[in-house]
Amino acid sequence: MISGRLKALFLRGPIGLTVVSIILGFTVGGIVLVVAGFNPFEAYGAILKGTFSKPKYIAYVIIYATPLIMTGLSVAFAMRTGLFNIGAEGQFIVGAMVAAMAGYALHLPIWLHVPLCLLLAMMAAALWGGLAGYIKARFGVHEVISTIMLNWTAFYLSNWSLTLSGFGKPGTGKSFTIQETARIDLFSQWKISKEGIQFIRSHEYLGDVLKAPVNLGIVVAIVLALLVWYILNRTTLGYELRAVGFNPHAAEYGGINVKRSIVTSMSIAGGLAGAAGALQVMGVSHKIAKLAVMEGYGFDGIAVALIGNNSGPGSVLAGFLFGGLKYGGSKIQDAVGAPTEVISIVVGTIILFIAMPKLIQTLLKFKKG
Amino acid sequence: MTTITKKFGDFVANDAINLKVHRGEVHALLGENGAGKTTLMNILYGILQPTSGTIRINGRELKVTDPNVAIRHGIGMVHQHFMLVETFTVTENIVLGNEPTRSFGVLDMETAEREVAELSERYGLAVDPKALIQDLSVGSQQRVEILKTLYRGAEILILDEPTAVLTPLEIQELVGIIRNLTEAGKSIIIITHKLGEIKQVADFCTIIRRGLHVDTVDVNTVSEAELAAKMVGREVSFKVEKKKQVPGETILEIQGLCVEGGRGLPAVDGLDLKLRKGEILGIAGVDGNGQSELIEALTGLRKVKSGSIIMRGKNITNLSPGKIIEEHKIAHIPEDRQKRGLVFEFDIAENLILQSYGKPPFSKRFSLLWDNIYQNAERLIEKFDIRPQHPATPARALSGGNQQKMIIAREVSHEPELLIAAQPTRGLDVGAIEYVHRALVAERDRGKAVLLISFELDEVLNVSDRIAVIYEGKIVGILDAEGVDENEVGLLMAGGTA
């Protein structure tokens, strides 16, 4: 019974589609490598080795995946309400900026400082996302247009904020580092203490993990993913948002306030992307720097959401896949000399195939029959 | 077409169906929703490939691998939902894909327009070749579709439910067009489940039931009742059974209602109407006289410009749809069931709580109680005979009739004081129509008020206790249904005075 249902989910549902798309994505990437004169097995082997061969690498994959999971959640949540949140990038920037400000300016005990920092960042980013929702509900401006513009607004707002005295560290193009009490790094003080160094040297595995800037971000990301799943599938709010996403006319007929749903959904999406920005500052960078280009966490979130079938758990898995590819992919340049951009080709191809469910279904049937 | 069989997996959509159409004949294809009519025609037009069976045209066997092959062999199809480019002119749409060109591929619009004008004159299909599609009425758009097939040299025309979207007057014009075409030697296959139309235009009729070929009959030798029985597989009563009932007090009062239509013009223009408990008030009228706007105003989906709507003594003008459903106990079977009435991606259980998801027993504070939601679905599926009987079936997988049953189940389960039924039987087959009518009468018998809006005059006459005729946004006459003169209603509908 259960295996039958799993099989059905695989053959007709989203899982089979995703798995086949991922396989095809790697195949196409492999072909590109062959054409470019590299051995794809060596290249992919280097990625695997660079991802799994040392505990430290795995820790890095998790660190890479954390923000992607959350921007993925942001895009996925909006998508469920029929909204395309291209603005996760800007919401990420706003979240990072506010977290850096609150992390530096406030002086509080750690148990208060950390949650407050995260909360303020999420609220600011929720307003940022909600603004796009409001513009859509009130004036009918499509969210793709408004969020793209808000991305650039956030970009320059963040760079401008670094010129403020008391936030930007003069002459560095960076902000002041946040207080210790606003950080979510694990064992950061202890690691550089005498005992810590001793521990890292003497414990092969744990010590290796600790060489990476491990932090609590992943825990928050997974909690948020579960929360997204719960809201969408188990609450009246989720029912409303999904109804609006699938058929706004029917939702309106059923008495659901469609305009309010659009604002709510974009606000929640904004908050999720803002959490990604905040955790990145609180756990990894500890400050923000002047941006020369968009960092791309929000845009990668679109890919993560698509691969994760716009669901909470899916975004977590896709975030890990993407984080692994990003981190492991950076190593093939050194290992076999192949360009890192091959990873972009793989990801792009996966999404291309996911967007062609008919083709995959035909392939699955062909394999079966 | 001989012994055509089409299987989708284990499901047999067409089971060894035979269909023979002669030159110059109108052949009707009759069957309930989901009987396999459209599948058969899609096979003829090359959209689907048959699992087995053969197609012969003028005696020659033919493999119709795609629609281009069908078009080359003189088969043309007019789909139920038109396939026209709204911002193009009539001529541009007709020549699309076969554009006449001068040298260097320059479009020759003059020639095209001349040809189109010539065609439209020859078959009596009056349209302005230079008009834009978006400015045309539905009837004219259909004529453009027919012209398109003729322009491509069609000898056999398939019309898929051609009257579903037309007004009575437009239907009469279409009948004239069909006659002109057959006189010119064209053959017509008309897919329909309206018996009256078959009697009116068709020469022969092939009846399909659940994918099986039931019979092919000469239309002149059978009655409508016989056709209906063959289609449904049992006797069908056209008469709506209902007891006499004395209506109670006034429940809904509409005074001087003005509502703007889509283009900012007044669609409802100073409308007055009273509705009492325990009666079915039918609104008769030709499509486009303000019916849609009236319903949307009553249900809060469209803003009222002036006037008032009083429900049980309380003013409900311009309240939100949620308030009107919740506090004022108005339920609504929407005119466009797929756009308004249901969410395709939701399953039956989810669709059944579209208005009540936020209330007990379906939710507690913010959490949905799925066990109760599914129990509710099982109960309503049983009571209203919705098929398939599984609550987790997505709405998109239901037939039109079952989608409508689901909507009725939901609306009636709210225990409304007023039920607004807009076009409740549109696109349904005879069996489902009977069901819907019974449900409406049952609500009335329970002392509730029912407002029925329909473009089918027969339906209004059969089901209602009183009939209000709407014309250009006003009620121009209210008649007792008992012993009403159909011609009188018809005259009022057309703007005449009784």
From TrEMBL, chain A:
Top-rank lineage group of the source organism: Bacteria
Chief place where the protein resides: membrane
Places the protein is found: Cell membrane
Pfam families: BPD_transp_2
Membrane topology value: Multi-pass membrane protein
Keywords (A to Z) from UniProt: Cell membrane, Membrane, Transmembrane, Transmembrane helix
TM region positions: 15-37, 57-79, 86-106, 112-132, 144-162, 212-232, 297-322, 342-360
Keyword Membrane: yes
PANTHER family: ABC TRANSPORTER, PERMEASE PROTEIN, GUANOSINE ABC TRANSPORTER PERMEASE PROTEIN NUPP
Name by which UniProt lists this protein: Nucleoside ABC transporter membrane protein
Taxonomic lineage from the root: Bacteria, Pseudomonadati, Thermodesulfobacteriota, Desulfobulbia, Desulfobulbales
Automatic annotation (TrEMBL), chain B:
SMART domains for this protein: AAA
CDD domains referenced in this protein's UniProt entry, alphabetically: ABC_Carb_Monos_I, ABC_Carb_Monos_II
Any one GO cellular component localisation term in the record: plasma membrane
SUPFAM superfamilies (alphabetical): P-loop containing nucleoside triphosphate hydrolases (SSF52540)
Residue ranges of every copy of the ABC transporter domain listed in the record: 1-235, 252-497
UniProt keyword terms in alphabetical order: ATP-binding, Cell membrane, Membrane, Nucleotide-binding, Repeat, Sugar transport, Translocase, Transport
Membrane topology: Peripheral membrane protein
GO molecular function, one term: ATP hydrolysis activity
UniProt main location, coarse: membrane
One Pfam family it belongs to: ABC_tran
UniProt xrefs under InterPro entries: AAA+_ATPase, ABC_carbohydrate_import_ATPase, ABC_transporter-like_ATP-bd, ABC_transporter-like_CS, P-loop_NTPase
Superkingdom in the source lineage: Bacteria
Protein family (similarity comment): Belongs to the ABC transporter superfamily.
Protein name according to UniProt: Simple sugar transport system ATP-binding protein
